[in-house]
Amino acid sequence: MKIKISNVKILANQNITPIKYLKIKYKINDIKDFKILRRSIDARDKENVYLVYTVCFTTNNSKLLKLKNASIYEPEKDFIYPKWHSDDRPVVVGFGPAGMFCALTLARSNARPIIIERGSEVEKRSQDIENFYQNKELNEDDNVLFGEGGAGTFSDGKLTTTLNDPIIKQILKDFVKFGANEEILYDAMPHIGSDVLRIVVKNLREEIISLGGEIHFNTKFIDYKENSKEIEAITTKGSFKTKHLFLALGHSAYDTISMLYNKGLKMEAKSFSVGVRIEHEREYINKLQYASFAKYLPAAYYKMAVHLEERSVYTFCMCPGGYVMATSNNKESIVTNGMSNYKRDANNSNAALLVEINPSDYYISSPLDGFKFQHDIEHKAYLTGGNFKAPANLVKEFLIDEVAENIRSVTPSYPHGIKLCDLNEVLPDFVIKALKEGIIKMDAKMPGFNYKDAILVAPETRSSSPVRINRDSNHKVGMIYPIGEGAGYAGGITSSALDGIKSAILSMEEV
């Protein structure tokens, strides 16, 4: 008999495993096939911080079923891939999370997909990013936003999602298969780490190739032609004909999305967010979240949202023990993001602190106006900071409309350095106002959040796409499948991967 027991609570400072805890508490001696299904941290009471587990195991002790938190364990069903019944080879443009998992699904279904990626394979891409950080030489097609693995490769590899879909478990299993730690299968806040993600992405690519897939790096999708029988994807290195064109462009491919709009592909403006990165010392956040239990637990995570009179302010892409990234893909712009490696042991913790932007804030005549809103902020930041330095201020001075003269206890991690300045020079007035109100309200939820020495680094503008490409219930328009975050149908690694898989499956229902 296989039993599941939930809400197994162990004080974080107790050096005891869940299996040992069960043996002591319930006097169970015949535990076999033990498995952790979920692990989270309950830090609501700072004097009693718990690790909370859901576990399953095989036992002959049927009395355990009388426990209120016990039940018979029903194992998950294996994901079954459909088959591709056509000689047509699908073409996938973009090799970020949506494109990778779309292509992987197609490859496992015997479709032999062709993948087009404007950037390089992850090994070369890492070199180009390092060159930008060391020498400020930016490759506009191969950077933190473009290249194998997409923007998610250099953003910690957070896999949290509010979606509840059985396919998500398969996504996590694949990440483990390709090199991620198996903890992501049960952690409530799973992450892979940017250092490990590079290995994962490479291994995923190699499986696609082994199954007959074909990947063209440094090949940009620049146009397409469509007739009643097929569609021709035109690139900088030739063209590819298909009846199934998947566009997994990512949220920053303005040039390609503009081309699609000018050719008549229907799009609509959507809400997105802009703001800053807020950076504290890691140990400071650890103590705020876990008090005296901090030394027994991994780097602390937080997630907050507050609702103001006109819009919301929230934290996003929180990177415990991580770095603020230089994420520009245009030579006269500043864009920030966050990342951390698997160990999350860097000196600082940072998060995006974002203000909701609605179409009414930026729309003039075109759904592409949201990109212009983003780019104007990014260019102002470049002019304000100078030489790729990021505009910044400290929380204390920001809240009272002053500019800090020097950094204090928090050393910024942004690779090109910061310039302390008035952030009104970069961000719209209504964003500044919302950020101030948001910081104060968040401090009420997490006392100490508005620490005077914390650094606000601007701007964070690329958290999501400002447009949605219209598609039908089969995820397509004509022979084109707009998928993932860039098409406006996802908001992170996991949801993008899920959209890619589902779109691939839907395409197979038609062949």
Secondary structure elements and pairings:
Blueprint: E1 2-11, H1 18-26, E2 32-42, E3 50-58, E4 70-72, E5 91-93, H2 97-108, E6 114-116, H3 122-135, H4 167-177, H5 194-210, E7 214-216, E8 221-226, E9 231-235, E10 238-242, E11 245-247, H6 254-262, E12 267-269, E13 272-281, H7 282-290, E14 305-307, E15 312-326, E16 336-339, E17 348-357, H8 359-362, H9 369-385, E18 390-394, H10 395-399, E19 418-420, H11 429-445, E20 455-460, E21 467-469, E22 480-482, H12 493-508
Parallel strand pairs: 5-6, 5-11, 6-7, 11-22, 18-19
Antiparallel strand pairs: 1-3, 1-4, 2-3, 8-9, 9-10, 12-21, 13-17, 13-20, 14-15, 15-16, 15-17, 18-20
Helix pairs in contact: 2-5, 2-12
How would you state the average pLDDT, rounded? 95
How many strands, which pairing sense, and closed or not: the largest β-sheet? 8 strands, mixed
Shape: globular
Summed up, the helix count is 12
Low-confidence stretches: none
> What is the total tally of β strands?
22
End-to-end separation in angstroms reads 43 Å
Our estimate of the beta-strand percent is 15-25%
Q: Which structural class is indicated by helix and strand composition?
A: alpha+beta
Supply Rg: 24 Å
State the assembly state of the protein chains: single chain
Helix fraction by DSSP (H/I, runs of at least 4) = 25-40%
